[in-house]
Design a protein that fits this description.
512 residues; alpha/beta; FAD/NAD(P)-binding domain; 2 domains; 5-stranded parallel sheet; 30% helix; globular
Length: 512
C-alpha cells in the first residue's frame, strides 16, 4: 500500500527544453501541470520520466506549496502523522513532531521539488484562466496570465481545498474592523487585547483558536454544529529517533506501514457506524476532562454520529474554550454591522476583528468551470450538482486530462497522499499508453457511470450518509462525491490496472 515510486533523473536535455519552451512560440509542452501542492509535485516527479518532452508547472501564487503555503495561520499543522503524510518515494528523517507543523511540511515540499529538479519547470505567478481541448490537433490550449500555451497532456492539481469560502451574510462588506479568512491570515494585525469573533469551528479553527485565545481581550466563537474532537497526543520526535530513521534501513518504512494499518482498521467504524460508539465514548471523556462547566459542555457535545463530519484532533481546543475570556455561541450569524456581528437571536456582539474558519469551496474542483471539451462545454456544466470521474481521475469527453484530488479522492480516515500516489500509478499507465500509440485517451461514458454506481454502493450504509448530519462530503444532490468510501488497497488495486476496454483511444489524425 505504500510502494516506493522510483526517483526520475532530470536530464540536461529536459532542462534545456524547459528553458527553451518558456520563450519559444508557440509555447508547447508534452505535459502541463496546474498547481504545485502535494498532488502537483508528486505527479511532476513521477510523470516526467515517461518522456523527454517539456514539462511545465503552472502556479498562480509566487511560490510552490499549495494548501501548505496558503494556510500559515497560528497553530497550522497536519492531522495525519508525519511519516504517513509524505511521499513513499521521498521519506524524510527531519520531522520534529508526530504531526508536522505547516512550516515543516512546506519545507519538505520545497526540498522534494528541488531534489527532483522541478524548480526550473515552475512557472510562478502564472494562473491558468481557461483550458480548451482542440480535437483537430489533439492538444489542450491553456490561457494563462502570461499568454497562451498548449500541451498534449494536462494534470489538473488545483486541489479541493484551494478556494476559501465565506458565508452569505448580509452586511459583510460593511464591517469597519479587521476581517479575514483563516487561509488568508493577516499577519500584520496584532490581535493582542482585541475583541475577536471566530465564525466556524472546523479543522482550522480548532488549531488557531487555542493560539489566539491567550492574547485577545475577548473571543466569541460562533459554532453552528459541535464537532467531534479527539485527543491529538502529539509528541516531539527526538534527535535519537530521527537518527534511527536516517540510518536504519527499513525502519521508517516499517513505522509508516504500522501507522497505515492502524488507520486503515479504523475504516471499519466508518463503514459500520455502530462501531463509532467506541470512539464516541472516548470523545465524550475527552470533553468532560477538559470542560467542567456543564452548560458549556452541553454546547460542545455533538448530536450526530462520530465520523459523519470530519473528526478533529486537539488537546488544546476544549481547554481554550473553557477560559473566562471566551464565549461560545451556538446560534448562527444573522448579519454583520460596521461594528460587529448580530446573531440569529438578534443579539449584537461588538468586535474589532472577525476571523472566518468557514472552510473551502468543495462542490467542484477549481477551474473546472473553465475547462472545455471539444464541443465547448465546461466540465462543471457536464457534472451539474454531482461530479463524477472514472477513478476520480479522468472524465469522459476530456481526453488526456487528469484530475488530482478529483471526485471521491478525499479520505475521512487516513492520509490522502496515499490516494495521490495511487492516482499517479493510474495516470502513468494511461499516459504511457497515449504516448505509445500517439493518440489521446479518455474513459468511456459507460465505465464512468459504472464506477459512479460502485461509489454509491460502497457509500450506502456508511456513517457519511446515515450519521445524522450534513457535511461537505455530500454534494447538493445529496450524493457522496468527495470521499473514497473504501480502503486504500481497494482503490489502489483498481488504479494499478489500465483496462483498455474501459477507455477510448483516438489516434492523432494530423501530422504534428
Amino acid at each position: 500500500m505504500v510502494g516506493v515510486l522510483p526517483k526520475p533523473e532530470l536530464t540536461d536535455r529536459e532542462t534545456t527544453m524547459v528553458t527553451a519552451q518558456t520563450t519559444a512560440s508557440p509555447d508547447h509542452h508534452v505535459l502541463a501541470i496546474v498547481g504545485s501542492g502535494f498532488a502537483g509535485i508528486g505527479a511532476a516527479v513521477r510523470l516526467s520520466k515517461l518522456h523527454e518532452g517539456s514539462v511545465v508547472i503552472f502556479e498562480r501564487a509566487a511560490t510552490l506549496g499549495g494548501v501548505w503555503r496558503d494556510n500559515d495561520y497560528p497553530g497550522a499543522a497536519c492531522d495525519v502523522q508525519s511519516l504517513l503524510y509524505s511521499f513513499s518515494f521521498a521519506p524524510s528523517h527531519r520531522w520534529r513532531h508526530t504531526f508536522a507543523r505547516q512550516a515543516e511540511i512546506r519545507e519538505y515540499l520545497e526540498r522534494v521539488a528541488r531534489e527532483n529538479g522541478l524548480l526550473p519547470r515552475l512557472r510562478a505567478e502564472c494562473a491558468v484562466t481557461s483550458m480548451t481541448w482542440d480535437p483537430s490537433t489533439a492538444r489542450w490550449t491553456l490561457e494563462t496570465a502570461r499568454g497562451t500555451s498548449t500541451a498534449d497532456h494536462v494534470v489538473l492539481a488545483t486541489g479541493s481545498l484551494a478556494d476559501p469560502t465565506l458565508p452569505a451574510v448580509d452586511g459583510i462588506e460593511s464591517f469597519e474592523g479587521v476581517m479575514f479568512h483563516s487561509s488568508q491570515w493577516d499577519h500584520e494585525t496584532d490581535l493582542s487585547g482585541r475583541r475577536v469573533a471566530v465564525v466556524g469551528t472546523g479543522a482550522s479553527a480548532i488549531q488557531f483558536v487555542p493560539k489566539i485565545q491567550p492574547i485577545v481581550g475577548s473571543l466569541t466563537v460562533f459554532q453552528r454544529t459541535a464537532p467531534w474532537v479527539m485527543p491529538r497526543e502529539d509528541k516531539p520526535i527526538s534527535s535519537t529517533r530521527r537518527a534511527l530513521l536516517r540510518t536504519i534501513p527499513g525502519y521508517q518504512r516499517a513505522l509508516r506501514a504500522l501507522i497505515y494499518a492502524e488507520r486503515e482498521i479504523k475504516l471499519l467504524a466508518f463503514r459500520h457506524p455502530f462501531l463509532m460508539a467506541i470512539g464516541e465514548k472516548e470523545g465524550r471523556a475527552h470533553l468532560h476532562h477538559a470542560v467542567r462547566d456543564p452548560e458549556l459542555r452541553d454546547k460542545l457535545t455533538p448530536n450526530y454520529r462520530m465520523g459523519c463530519k470530519r473528526i478533529l484532533l486537539s488537546d488544546e481546543y476544549y481547554p481554550a474554550l473553557a477560559q473566562p475570556n471566551v464565549n461560545v455561541e451556538t446560534v448562527g450569524v444573522s448579519r454583520v454591522t460596521p461594528r460587529g456581528v448580530v446573531d440569529a437571536n438578534g443579539t449584537a456582539h461588538e468586535v474589532d476583528a472577525i476571523i472566518f474558519g468557514t472552510g473551502f469551496e468543495t462542490s467542484r474542483l477549481p477551474l473546472t468551470d473553465r475547462v472545455f471539451d471539444g464541443r465547448g462545454r465546461s466540465m462543471a456544466d457536464g457534472w451539474g450538482d454531482s461530479p463524477r470521474a472514472y477513478l476520480g481521475t479522468m472524465v469522459a469527453n476530456f481526453p488526456n486530462l487528469y484530475l488530482m484530488h478529483g471526485p471521491n479522492i478525499a479520505l475521512g480516515h487516513t492520509s490522502v497522499i496515499l490516494m495521490f500516489e495511487s492516482q499517479i500509478h493510474y495516470i502513468e499507465r494511461v499516459m504511457a499508453h497515449a504516448l505509445r500509440t500517439g493518440g489521446s485517451v479518455e474513459p468511456t461514458v459507460t465505465a464512468q457511470a459504472q464506477y459512479a454506481d460502485k461509489i454509491d454502493d460502497l457509500t450506502d450504509g456508511t456513517v457519511w450518509t446515515s450519521g445524522g448530519c450534513s457535511s461537505w462530503y455530500l454534494d447538493p444532490a445529496g450524493r457522496n462525491s468527495n470521499l473514497w468510501p473504501g480502503s486504500i488497497l481497494g482503490y489502489r488495486s483498481r488504479a494499478m490496472r489500465f483496462d483498455r476496454s474501459r477507455h477510448t483511444t483516438r489516434i492523432r489524425a494530423v501530422a504534428r
